[in-house]
């Protein structure tokens, strides 16, 4: 008698009998487990999805109602992009448990576009036009992009991801000081205390809780921080009371897209960064779910990313990319079904169709958002540092690439007026540390690691110590390492 087929894991135990021969990625789970697991993915990514529209919307000067609309649009388009990635259509979609949402990489360049647009009413149409073009170009380039991945090794991607986090931290610090920089109470001890309390709550939850609660620590921190802020009179519930229960993100709500060359170039750079990050995430996720991502899978996944980005502006959404935190959630829970993630995409679409649900984040006071933002944006920078650790920084060439690229990328943060003499169109690109840092990292990597490369270029030398002179002793030290 043939022995009974063994159940591979806990996920298989709850699967339907006809699904047990399928790869775990293609299995469907019982309805309750499918819904709860999908909701967990939404909880893990929610704060990351709503942060970019909040940042950009505040920079444009949108009202609470308009900000709610923009947030809902981002949730809706993130759901659509997740559907494309998990369920797939034709050669579009990696068909892996891959969550898509608004990428942080585009925030700093979009803020630069806002700052250099004379009429703020035109800022969002210019941004949307640039994203549409970048998305379409990325879609066409997807099949060939895998051949360019060698120009985006960890030393480049790690530098760029670090710059993304560092560029966003000033936004969190601004939130922590209050909603209005011109107000007398801006930066008051009350606002800073609320930010600090929220930060401490998030840290405590991350340290002393487990499982689902640990994953949604940022979301819980926002709720607790908002409740604490009520007695101080800084919580405004009017966006919720004024929002409709059901609504639809009407196409081009903020105006027809406008196409400005400098903005398009800037967002194309962001698209390259996004595609590189998505490629790395697909490779990592493929290993986690035991279905390695080959060139065909990567091309299909990039098509979903780029097409989702091109479609998003139609519904007032921004550029979409993979959410790395959800990959960690897959690794932790061992629930590998792509249909679970598709279910999470369904929740995102429903939330985007309910202005009341989208308006809840608008209730959160800015100082509370600032406290949570320190963790959220700081984690992005830390993720970049983790990538740099794998980049081979014991090689002097890579140290120079990181050092100069970070310096170039941090210029707009530390010296905002550095490019004041340049034309306004050029400043859209130059004022984005992510764009300039990425270009610098790619070019330096080509110069140091590709052009005229000799065999001894691969030799590992010890990084120069502070105060150490370039001399024969350093050569001897390098030889000793070997």
Automatic annotation (TrEMBL):
Membrane-crossing segments per the record: 43-63, 69-90, 97-114, 126-145, 152-174, 186-204, 216-234, 254-273, 339-362, 368-388, 400-422, 428-448
According to the lineage, what is the superkingdom?
Answer: Bacteria
Q: Which Pfam families match?
A: Xan_ur_permease
Q: Which InterPro entries match?
A: NCS2, UacT-like, Xan_ur_permease
What topology in the membrane does the UniProt record assign? Multi-pass membrane protein
**Subcellular localization, per the record?**
Cell membrane
Q: State where composition is biased (Basic and acidic residues).
A: 17-26
Main location group? membrane
Segments for region (Disordered):
1-30, 457-482
Q: Which UniProt keywords apply?
A: Cell membrane, Membrane, Transmembrane, Transmembrane helix, Transport
What family is it from? Answer: Belongs to the nucleobase:cation symporter-2 (NCS2) (TC 2.A.40) family.
Q: What is this protein called?
A: Nucleobase:cation symporter-2 family protein
